[in-house]
Structure formats: structure tokens, C-alpha cells
Amino acid sequence: MIVTGEASALIGNRRYDGLAPVVLFGPTSRATRLVCTGPQVVTICLSALGWATLVGRSAAALADRAVAAGDVLDPRLVAALHEAAQFDDRSCIAERLDPLLAKARCVTPADESLVRGLESIINEGLVCVAEAAGVELGVASHVVRRSALRHFGYPPKVLLNRRRFVHAMERMILSDRGYSEAARHGYFDASHFIRDAKRFLGMTPRRFLALAG
Q1: Do the Cβ atoms of 115 and 151 come closer than 8 Å?
Q2: For residue range 104-155, what is the model confidence (pLDDT) as tens digits?
Q3: What phi and psi, each to the nearest 5 degrees, are found at residue 207?
Q4: From CA 85, how far away is CA 79, in angstroms rounded?
């Protein structure tokens, strides 16, 4: 994230005040609240493969954390990103940032095909339990776990549960059936869904939606 003013963040119960102008957020499994002041905030979302090629550091080490980007990335890249974001016309910011990021991507992980496969399994909801991920990918479960921690920040079970929760939450929002609709998408019952909500959001879904609204 690039900000041109002051910013603070709350990730779960961990608070970060006075964030640097260019901040790197690790992968998150907790709801994140940002408070930013200033004329402009630019966010750049990285896929697991994007993290591997650009950051080149274990995602697990930065999971649910925010750090000054200059502590992890090349300071020259960080300075260039910050300068590129200082532009009044937001429509051309991507044109200014994309070449910098493309040039910086110089590390290809040895397990690239595994990362792509695991990302597809998670995004498409191809499996529901962690043990099945290794079977689907044709590799041992411990290999999948090691790759997931390094590139996604969490073990497969957390990644799959987070995807299940997000999907169920989306269905609940789109439906007028509330928790009963969410429970139809991978949950035993509404209490099971609410338990996951407290794990990932830190509150019940209804309270979260009330705050978001």
C-alpha cells in the first residue's frame, strides 16, 4: 500500500500506527481495518506467485503483519513506487506502477507449478479438506504444506477454511436467508459458520456487516 498522508492499521488485535509511506502487508487471516488521511491511497494486491517473485521471503514470516516496504524490498523500488504514486490523475497510476513491478520480478520459485496448482484449488474450491489438496496436486501433503506456508502464509487447512468462509459470507450477503444460507455452503450449521466468522473477522457476520455499512 502506498499512502501520501498518515495511515494506521488494525490487523486482528495488532495495531500499527504511523505506517511508512509505502507499506507491505503480509497475507492476512484476520479482518484488517485501515485509517488513512491524505489525498491518495494506492493498493497493490499480490497473488501468491506475485509474492514469491517480488518479495522472495517466506509469507508465513509476515502473515497478519504490516512492515515498512523498505525493510523487505529493494529501497530503490520502494522509492520509485512512492514517486510514481504522486500523481493527480488516478487513471494512469497503473501505467506508472506496472512497469516498475514487472522489472522487479526477477525470482521464479522452483515450485511455481505447485503454487499455481494450489492457488487454483483454493480459488475454485476444488477440495474441502487439506489432505485432499496433495492428492489433487499429485504430491505429498507435507510438500503442499511447506509450499503453502512459504508462498501463501498459512497451512492448507487455514487457506481452505478461509476460502469456504468468504464464499459463504458472499452467499449470505446476496441472499435474504441470513445464516441459514451461509450454512448451506460447506458448514454443518449456523453455529459452525459463526465460529469461523469469529476466527477470521473477530466478530459475528452481522456485526461486521453493520460496521461495514
Answers
A1: yes
A2: 876 788 899 999 999 998 888 767 777 888 888 899 999 999 999 999 999 9
A3: -65, -40
A4: 10
> Does the pLDDT of residue 56 top 80, yes or no?
yes
Type of residue at 199: R
Q: How far apart are CA 81 and CA 95, in angstroms?
A: 12
**Do the bridges between strand 14-16 and strand 7-11 make them parallel or antiparallel, or are there none, so unpaired?**
antiparallel
Angle between helices 112-124 and 141-152 (to 10 degrees): 90
Q: How far is CA 90 from the centre of its chain?
A: 23
Residues 6+ apart with CB under 8 A from 92: none
Could you give the residue ranges of the DSSP H alpha helices within the chain?
48-54, 75-85, 93-104, 112-124, 130-137, 141-152, 156-174, 179-183, 190-200, 205-212
pTM of this structure = 0.88
- Written as one letter, the residue type at 38 is G
DSSP designation for 189: S
The three grid cell numbers given for residue 186, joined into one nine-digit string:
460447506
Query: How far is 165 from 197, CA to CA, in rounded Å?
Result: 7
Nearest alpha-carbon partner for 58 in 109, 133, 101, 1:
109
Please report, in angstroms and rounded to a whole number, the separation of the first and last CA atoms in the chain.
Answer: 23
In single-letter form, the type of residue at position 106 comes to C
